[in-house]
Amino acid sequence: MTVPFLDPGAAYAELRDDIDAAVHRVLTSGRYLLGPEIEAFEAEYAAYCGTRHCVAVGSGCDALELALRALDIGPGHEVIVPAHTFIATWLAVSATGAVPVAVEPDERTYNLDPARLTEAITPRTRAIIPVHLYGQPADLDAVQAVARRHGLAVVEDAAQAHGARYRGARIGTRTTATAFSFYPGKNLGALGDGGAVITDDEAVARRLRLLRNYGSTVKYRHEIKGTNSRLDEIQAAVLRVKLPLLDEWNARRAAVARRYLTECAGLPGVTMPYVAPWADPVWHLFVIRSARRDRLARRLAARGVGTLVHYPTPPHLSPAYAGSHPGEGSCPRAERISDEVLSLPMGPHLSEGHVDAVVAALHAAVREQADDPSDRRSAPTDGDPPDARAPASA
Question: What residue spans carry the region label Disordered (predicted)?
Answer without folding.
Answer: 365-394
